[in-house]
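Quick one:
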Amino acid sequence: MAVRMWTRIREDLRAAREQDPAARSTAELVLAYPGLHAVWLHRVAHRLWQHPRGRLVARLVSHVGRGVTGIEIHPGATLGRRLFIDHGMGVVIGETAIVGDDVLIYHGVTLGSRSAVAGRRHPLVGDGVVIGTGARVLGPVTIGSGARIGANSVVVRDVPPGATMVGIPAREADTLVEWAIDPALLI
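Output:
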């Protein structure tokens, strides 16, 4: 158990260094990266959430994590390995969200619901996905592996693997011409 925990922490640190060119040292990452802190606190909360008698404590850990980091991750959400939340302030990840491995999420992103109906109501995000600043991914949609969601896009339909989605509502970027017009669409 402890070995697995330290392996995951090392993976998270390596992913943060690879994803963020501003990262200067491991000490800086450990001490000053709220995205890492939020993921680590979520792992504790998620483990508690798995036990019915631990749910209140899980919510309290989650609540403290939100207060400290500005990132709200419901303890019921399932997060993959090497998730990196860059900057992080304002990120919200709902209870039934499932996030794959090697995902990069920028600040202000919401993985939210469109209904109060019981069951899966939050997104399923595949491996290697990048979700740009301020994007909203809403409802029980599936974001295919390797997809990229542009900044401030609103996704309410499934996204195919490898697709690049931009706009409100999000649509697949047709050609590189859109990137030439505004390369900031992704970040």
